[in-house]
Write the structure tokens for this entry.
Amino acid sequence: MTFKAETGPIAPAVLVSGNDLSEPKAGLAVWFSMIEDPIRRSLSALAAATARPQAFLVVIAYGALWLIPEPETFDLHGLATLVVWVMTLIIQRAEHGDTQAIHAKLDGLIHSIERAPNRLAEIDDKEPEDIEDERQKNS
């Protein structure tokens, strides 16, 4: 792999060329491609965590930690902030439940059809971008 530093009118860029890359990329694009997968996995895990009942305990603890040391700053705005968080968690939980129910029903249908590939029943374990790619392949 070869690294070549160049300066441009806006900022310096690092061009990378090698066996596995067909065209040079800017340094920022290379860096982003390295951290993209961990970010996607973290966001998916965060979305699943906010659908759990424990997420409500986090909001309650946050409110208590705000109210106990500084009760004078916990006004109508603070209460509205906590209500928005709780409503967001309720919506997330409802959406997650609906999605899981739909997936369970579809998995049952896929397993009952002999010609359907089993990889379709396991697709919900993948990242959303990978699922979109799979849907484009099948359409």
Remarks:
- The longest helix spans residues 76-112.
- The chain has two domains: 1-49, 50-139.
